[in-house]
Amino acid sequence: MHLSEKSVFKTSLLCGSFIVALIGYMPDVINNEGLYKTFRIVNYVLFGSLFFLTFNIKKIGYLRVLFVYSVVLYIFLIETLLFLDLGFKIDFDDILQLSIPFIAILIGYNINISAKRYSNCLIIYCIAALMLSVYSVIYFIGSFTILDQYMVEHKNELGAILSNSGAILMSMIFLKDISKYKKIRLILYGAIICSCLLVLRARAAFTALLFCFLVVEWLFLKNKKNGFLIIGIIIITAAILYVYGALTIPSFLNDFFLGSNDLSDLDTISTGRIDRNIAALKFIFDYPMFGQLTTSFYLEWVHNYVLLKVSQYGLVGSFPLLCLYFYLIWTIISKISKIKEIRTEHFGYIVMIIPIIISLFEPSFPYGPGSVQVIAFFMFGYSMKNSLPQTSI
After folding, report:
1. Which of 23, 136, 182, 332 has the greatest number of C-beta atoms within 10 Å?
2. Distance between CA 311 and CA 292 in Å, rounded?
3. Alpha carbon distance 296, 39 (integer Å)
4. DSSP-derived 3-state class of residue 388
5. How far apart are the first and last CA of the chain?
């Protein structure tokens, strides 16, 4: 097969796997267990085919992130097998959850597609996510109205999909060579995505996207003449206006974050997350070494990745997971801080902000759900390959 034909085929597989993953969250699919499983299998086949077509084992040893990730996977697998042999209560869920993003990084790093095709794939993903979100809002809620109660059971997954898409669009808007017409179109897409996030009340995802926007805005302004002065003036002005009551939170944001709850009742606002996280901290102090591995005590689902893993496996069992988690955060911060002008190859670092921020509020992030976060880790791998300088071990 000719090189260009191979590239087209890989691009088609990539777009196909992204679209199938999104279709799996359509209301008609996710409410039908049999159909949902079928789409998951199709997605695994497409994603697996792309992995085998792009796999190059030498690249694992060349790139430090891949090397560290593979070492952590190996250590945690050995640790899991050892804990099972000792009779501890543990399964392979975390191994699988870690493996899918690892494969996504490998694909992103190994795939040979042009920046233009890469951008086209991202646009296709964002448009498909846009259609999914609008249809889900109409199907579950009926109109673009922020309600007190949550109407969508899988709002966290939809929220992450929308935030990832929003971060991609946001990054594209700040490209230097983008046309005015395309920028307006991307802003319109982003506005619809933000509206859907608000209606779905995906608060963690919206917070992550807001933080991502601040980072992108900072990157844009810091390299302008007197950029830091502009940033300082904006912050001070906003603070003064807020103190004197001239800057107030819009009512729709109040409904979005608080619903019908009072600001003084933080645990109700957080739907019990604060109490569960405090309980997890107390549990960690009681069982610091091995957590729930050595006790039958039941701890409710903790909504923070670090607290969840330490409470599940203790400091000993969770050590490799925490090392990888904080290493990824350090890598993302390091890469973003070096960006002088936002380019296509930087998108992956910016989008990775989303799963990291959401992991502060939701337990399955940043690595899961796999079908949701595969786009972020794929883009991260692509950025690690195409942005300079590359970091090797």
Report:
1. 136
2. 6
3. 37
4. coil
5. 33
Residue 53 tokens read as 């077509």
Cβ neighbours, 10 Å, residue 182: 13
| Bond prior to 369 in cis (omega within 30° of 0) | yes
Three-state DSSP at 148 gives coil
The neighbour count for residue 144, using CB atoms within 10 Å, is 13
In DSSP notation, 74-120 reads: HHHHHHHHHHHHTT----SHHHHHHHHHHHHHHHHHH----HHHHHH
Tens digit of each residue's pLDDT (9 = 90 or more) over 67-119: 999 999 999 999 999 988 888 888 788 888 999 999 999 999 988 888 888 99
Q: Which residues pair with 392 in a beta bridge?
A: 63
Token representation of residue 269: 């606002």
Q: What does each C-alpha distance from 7 to 236, 343, 384 come to in angstroms?
A: 50, 22, 19
Which burial class, exposed, middle or buried, applies to 392 when counting CB atoms under 10 A from its CB (0-12, 13-18, 19+)? exposed
